[in-house]
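Deviations from the work plan: none for this task. Representative record:
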Amino acid sequence: MANYQHILLAIDTSEHHQQVCDKAASLAQQHQATLSICHLVENYLASDFAYEGINNVTVEMQDDLLNNAKARIKTHAAMLNIPQERCWVEFGNPRYDVVRLADEHKVDLIIVGSHGRHGLQLLLGSTANAVLHHAKCDVLAVRLNN
Amino acid sequence: MANYQHILLAIDTSEHHQQVCDKAASLAQQHQATLSICHLVENYLASDFAYEGINNVTVEMQDDLLNNAKARIKTHAAMLNIPQERCWVEFGNPRYDVVRLADEHKVDLIIVGSHGRHGLQLLLGSTANAVLHHAKCDVLAVRLNN
């Protein structure tokens, strides 16, 4: 039977984390797979894109963003019994760095939360969409209740 | 444990059917889920889009397309032990009718094959992409070897 060996749960900024966490925990158990978790924090200082209204971001503010994210994701990791070495919270672009992390750690299934998107949102795309198109492994999009 | 109850395998025109079929069979077995299969055949006659070069499609040619698709998908269904009543091959738009079929039959996981897409392909989107954004349930994109 084609079991998944290493599942990567990619957490975004959504408030629906618990729903995706529960699903990831179930699947990891069913497949007896290693479960890892990642969260990418946008680095506004390093970005060459002019973020209107947030061009006064300081190094301290960026560090706060990262530290807050680390604290939040650590809580989820603890609930999922994921050890610290498989809990990756770092600066990066969720669209590409989720796939990079998956490649580096030989992940064979990425789990992402997915909201329904319509109109302009569809055109702009989403993390789930980017991961789907760039991943070299399978991708499970867990439908979140809007 | 959050098991999937009804899995819908949505087959497209790719030649990589076997890869997706094997994955669907494994998952259905693991989840002890009902497995259904669908394939949508584009109806060029009903479309309001002017298909360049294929505007001489006749009713007979359309029927041939559908019958050929039915024969092909029937072979896959038989290998997967899917009975005829859960093997849906019909005219429609794969982008929307996969989701409609999933809704109608209370599917909680849609499995689609996914090719990597870049550049213009990304912009044009794919069935996997459309299903991801419109589905009201989870979507597993099985990565196909290009």
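Residues 62 and 89 of chain A are 13 Å apart (CA to CA).
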